[in-house]
Design brief:
The protein has three helices and two strands, in the order ααββα. It is mostly helical. The protein has one domain. A two-stranded antiparallel ribbon has the order 1-2. The longest helix is centred in the middle third of the chain and has 37 residues, at 21-57.
Length: 107
């Protein structure tokens, strides 16, 4: 049984080394399989990277207790403090958000 597997490996080795049509086909097939595995790995890596970026965007950190949570609540699930809303700053009157500039002549 061991002798049969040795013969099979020798035949495959000869097919790879000799410039025959069968050897070229086997080398092309092996190269294609390696490219497919490489592309599958890159695809999985890309999906993982995009998923990690999406996960990082959805993480909220409480300013009071420092805990992190994944929900869109306005209140921390650990300590109960209110989350600071950036949308509250939008409702400021324009006069408090603008700067008055005075023009002076320089002589």
């Amino acid at each position: 049984m061991n002798r049969n597997s040795t013969i099979i490996w020798l035949i495959l080795l000869i097919l790879f080394l000799l410039p025959t049509q069968a050897g070229k086909i086997l080398i092309d097939l092996a190269g294609g399989i390696m490219i497919i595995f490489f592309l599958i790995g890159l695809t999985i890596l890309g999906i993982g990277w995009v998923s990690w970026k999406n996960l990082k965007e959805n993480i909220n950190t409480c300013e009071q207790c420092g805990s992190t949570y994944f929900t869109n609540l306005n209140q921390c699930p650990i300590c109960g403090s209110q989350k600071k809303n950036d949308s509250q700053d939008i409702n400021l009157p324009a006069s408090s958000a603008t700067i008055d500039v005075e023009v002076k002549d320089s002589d």
